[in-house]
Design goal:
Layout: H1 2-37, E1 45-51, H2 56-73, E2 77-83, E3 87-91, E4 97-101, H3 105-120, H4 124-135, H5 146-156, H6 160-168, H7 170-184, E5 193-196, E6 199-201, H8 207-212, H9 220-223, H10 227-235
Parallel strand pairs: 1-2
Antiparallel strand pairs: 1-5, 3-4, 5-6
Keywords: Glycoprotein, Secreted, Signal
Main location: secreted
Signal peptide: 1-19
């Protein structure tokens, strides 16, 4: 009888010990999960990019660098673009403005297309990629015209008519004037110009790599980034 009681007690306390062990393990796993849930992405890096739609240097930058930056880093960047550039603005007596863009009236219209795309396309990353498409070096003429807008909209599933109507109307002029005022705050002469977290950035051949260096802890898109591979792609 004593043997039976003894075996029963051993069995009881063994089961209890295993149960407590499992409970501790589950609590530790829950704690680890909760700690991982609290891990947040680093604060977004603020990028201010000033450009004009027909500037050849801006088009090269858009094609060689900016598209990659938008596609790979958009989750980690607060990108604000200002399609205006080198414009002479004359304030008329009737409280309206007359604009003379560096590359002519076509560029003013191109800038308005960009401004309207940023306003019409509600997904900001998609709007940036649409404007990048307008300026791609593969576009005919200087890009950023109705033909480019139709082509990019068709490829991306948007209605180019809404954007073109905006650019031709009062809303396009209002947006263009807004970007002019924002550009004048930094007294921009010569584009493209970039500010990162409020400081002027001097562009190098590896803009993506330079931006990655701003993050104290490497973000996933930057961990396996190969600047030499990027150079090879740009040389093609």
């Amino acid at each position: 009888m004593e043997t039976i009681i003894y075996l029963f007690l051993v069995h009881y306390f063994t089961i209890r010990a295993l149960a407590e062990t499992n409970e501790i393990t589950e609590k530790n796993e829950t704690k680890l999960f909760d700690e991982n849930a609290d891990i947040e992405k680093p604060p977004k890096l603020n990028i201010k990019y000033y450009y004009e739609s027909h500037c050849p240097y801006c088009r090269n930058f858009e094609t060689d660098h900016f598209k990659q930056i938008i596609e790979k880093l958009h989750d980690y960047l607060d990108i604000q673009t200002y399609p205006y550039g080198n414009v002479n603005r004359l304030h008329l007596p009737n409280n309206t403005f007359e604009y003379a863009c560096q590359h002519g009236p076509e560029e003013c219209y191109g800038n308005k297309l960009h401004a309207c795309a940023l306003d019409v396309i509600k997904n900001h990353t998609a709007a940036l990629l649409f404007n990048n498409c307008l300026m791609d070096i593969s576009q005919e003429n200087k890009g950023s015209d109705d033909k480019a807008a139709d082509k990019c909209a068709s490829n991306m599933g948007y209605d180019s008519n809404v954007i073109k109507e905006c650019a031709l109307g009062e809303k396009g002029s209002e947006l263009f004037n807004y970007y002019g005022e924002e550009t004048s705050k930094h007294k921009i002469r010569g584009v493209p110009k970039i500010w990162i977290n409020g400081s002027k950035y001097e562009r190098s051949h590896d803009v993506m790599g330079d931006i990655c260096k701003y993050f104290l802890n490497p973000i996933p898109p930057c961990e396996n980034y190969d600047s030499t591979k990027n150079d090879e792609e740009n040389d093609k």
